[in-house]
Amino acid sequence: MAGKCIALIAHDQKKDAMAEFARRNQDALTDWHIVATGTTGGRVLDACPDLKVTRLKSGPLGGDQQIGAMIATSEIDVLVFFIDPMTPMPHDVDVKALTRLAVLYDIPMALNEATAERLIKTLNH
């Protein structure tokens, strides 16, 4: 995948926040290719139909692992993953593996809105 690539993932209770984050930062994201897990990607496209978004599988159905593989093959430059710490996740092992890969491969990663807002401001500079 050529160019800059950002991965967007959001747990169910954070999908509205991710769509709003993308809408608020649409100008900064315009030059980026976005990969997102299934429903999150759909919500981002609904909010920002002009962005370049590739939707992968839903997180619990393998989307987290798809993004992890893309991190391992240097296809992803930035990870924004809005985690809901209050809801139990049946695929918690996949979530931990994904964050471990981002740390291992030194990928800038934001796990909440405050960090994502600061990170997005540095992307195009």
How would you describe the overall organization of this protein?
The protein is of the alpha/beta class and 125 residues long. It has a 5-stranded parallel β-sheet with strand order 3-2-1-4-5, sandwiched between helices. It has a single domain, classed as Methylglyoxal synthase-like domain (Rossmann fold). It starts with a strand and ends with a helix. It has helices at residues 15-24, 26-29, 38-47, 63-72, 92-104, 113-123, and strands at residues 5-10, 33-36, 52-55, 78-82, 109-110. It is an enzyme of class 4 (lyase). The active site is at 64 (proton donor/acceptor).
Essential attributes:
125 residues; lyase; alpha/beta; Methylgl_synth; methylglyoxal synthase activity; Methylglyoxal synthase; five-stranded parallel beta sheet; Rossmann fold; EC 4.2.3.3
Summarize the structure.
The protein is of the alpha/beta class and 125 residues long. The protein has one domain: Methylglyoxal synthase-like domain (Rossmann fold), CATH 3.40.50. It contains six helices and five strands; from the N terminus they run E-H-H-E-H-E-H-E-H-E-H.
